[in-house]
Amino acid sequence: MDNIAIVWFRNDLRLHDNEMLTDAIQKAKFVLPLYVFDPGIFTGTTSFGFEKTAKFRTKFILESVEDLRKQLRLKGSDLIIRIGKPEEEIFIIAKEYKSSWVYCNRERTDEEVKVQDRVEKKLWTIGQELRFCRGKMLYYTADLPFPISQVPDTFSGYRKEIEYSVPLRKPLPVPEAIPFPDFKDDRGVLPTLADFSKGDLPADHIENQNFKGGETEGLKHLNHFVWETNQIASYKDTRNQLLGWSFSTKLSAWLSTGCLSPKYVIEQKLKFEEKVIKNESTYWLYFELLWRDYFRLMGKKYENRIFQPRGISHHDPGGSVDYALFGLWATGMTGVPFIDANMRQLNSTGFMSNRGRQNVASFLVKDLNIKWLMGAEYFESLLLDYDPCSNYGNWNHIAGVGNDAKDDKYYNILAQSRKYDPEGKFIKYWIPELRPIPAHMVHDPGMMNQEDQHKYGVILGKDYPMAVTTKASRLKIEKTG
Ligand SMILES: Cc1cc2nc3c(=O)[nH]c(=O)nc-3n(C[C@H](O)[C@H](O)[C@H](O)COP(=O)(O)OP(=O)(O)OC[C@H]3O[C@@H](n4cnc5c(N)ncnc54)[C@H](O)[C@@H]3O)c2cc1C
Question: Residue 327: in which H helix or E strand, if any?
Fold first, then answer.
């Protein structure tokens, strides 16, 4: 049999700038693309008992895999789809088709590494090997001016060392053709949400309408952001808004699933700067993608520490495992409108802005004194754009257990709410019961006296909860005497 390379797609669901696909085509006569849905990921639970992958991300991945198959078919290839443990499914195909190599993008975080280790060991039993490629980051580790162990421990230190000195690589082109072998077995059917016991999404929010998985949709969205609307030219001014679609890039879910390559995003930004305008906003897209790389580098440098209660810093942040209090936060029923609005958005769409994430995380850890890992796992479950390094790295940062002690910042929720949602539009969108309240009181409904409550038809404790912070701090005071 002529030599075959299996290309195992994971969080790299694209044809453009795909190193493993490019390498496999160069090396082997035939290339066999494969995706494995691991039931543990789609139906399992986290250590605190949350769904491992809620319906938002599941749907996004299903759409992305469907699109990948379509794109591969347009190139004369196909995507083999299997449901099962990757080490078993890959092994069966590798053995039967006597592949010469299995290519994949190397993952660096615990769970993902364990899976790729199991695949590798199983392949060794039949004399085959796993070949690792790159493609998650904007900069390749090999191009950095320092080894992983010496990555600076502050973001600004890192940025200064690379932004003017390390050349950006060009994204790899989409392959012209992908030679597909004579594959006699069933090519596999795309599962549905119901196969993983997930319900449908509500259709009435802009996020649910616009976040559609797949390389095609990701490229379309990027094109809209950069070229059709030129939003990239004003992004720095709009990125902290909360309500609607067109304020931040909304690229994260496509980046996390690998439907878009960060190198391709930056290539578009550079072209825009050349042809249209170069300003602080266009720079800011690069700046944010550097943050993404930075959290991945911290994950590489400190490995499992980003998932541990004491984080990178080894400092104990305390915090309790109080499911009742946590439940109020998670369901958007704390009685603090800015927190509740953000959490309800997350629960209904799988998305939350960066501003929202910083505030709800700070509130959980610093105001409610709950263990940060509970919040991080809840995000892992719900987020459309979940990425282990970005999620746990940011939580480390906010819980004050990250690499940079200066980042242990407290967010004043009321001040943030008034600053970023001055007219209360975001709060009123996500908490309809507060719509009758005038803007100056909607951030803090506790400002309403009995008369106001009757006038606006919002009785605290009945129509909307009393603020939990007052309860929590009262409890604390009572406990400490
Ligand atoms: C507690 C917490 C958890 C988070 N979890 C995740 C996660 O699991 N996955 C994820 O992609 N982002 C995560 N973020 C980062 C950030 O909130 C999202 O990337 C961003 O809100 C997504 O919206 P956007 O694409 O419009 O981002 P924009 O603000 O337009 O930023 C552009 C891109 O830059 C990257 N980026 C921006 N800020 C960050 C950051 N702080 N950390 C890492 N990358 C960043 C993202 O890829 C993003 O798409 C988290 C932030 C916090 C505070």
Answer: helix 323-330
Cα of 229 to ligand 1 centre, how many Å?
Answer: 22
Neighbours of 320 (CB within 10 A): 12
C-alpha 346 to ligand 1 mean position (Å): 14
DSSP state of 248: S
In 331-412, where does DSSP find H-type helix?
Answer: 337-349, 354-362, 372-382, 388-399
Does residue 407 have its Cβ closer than 6 Å to ligand 1?
no
Residue 479 has pLDDT above 70, yes or no: no
Which residue from 361, 382, 386, 309 is spatially nearest to 50, judged by alpha carbons?
382
Q: Does the pLDDT of residue 476 top 60, yes or no?
A: no
User: Ligand 1 pocket, 137 CB below 6 A?
Assistant: no
Whether the model clears a pTM of 0.90, i.e. scores above it, the answer is yes
Residues 6+ apart with CB under 8 A from 337: 417, 424, 427, 431, 434, 442, 443, 444, 445
- pLDDT tens, residue by residue, 104-124: 999 989 999 999 999 999 999
The answer, yes or no, to whether any atom of ligand 1 lies below 6 A from the CB of 390, is yes
Q: Is the distance from the beta carbon of residue 312 to the nearest atom of ligand 1 less than 6 Å?
A: no
Kindly list the structural domains of the chain, giving each domain's residue range(s) and its CATH number in brackets, ordered by start. 1-135 (3.40.50.620), 136-171+214-304 (1.25.40.80), 323-479 (1.10.579.10)
Whether 358 lines ligand 1, by a CB cut-off of 6 Å, is yes
Mutation choice for ligand 1 from 288, 296, 342, CB with most ligand atoms inside 8 A: 288
Ligand 1 geometric centre to CA of 354 (Å):
6
3-class SS letters over 127-182: CCEEEEECCCCCCCHHHCCCCHHHCCCCHHHHHHHHCCCCCCCCCCCCCCCCCCCC
Separation of alpha carbons 358 and 384, rounded Å: 17
User: What does the alpha-carbon distance between residue 168 and residue 271 come to, in Å, rounded to a whole number?
Assistant: 14
pLDDT digit string (tens) for 393-414? 999 999 999 987 666 678 999 9
Amino acid at 363: F
Distance CA 73, CA 274 (A): 35
> CB of 348 closer than 6 A to ligand 1?
no
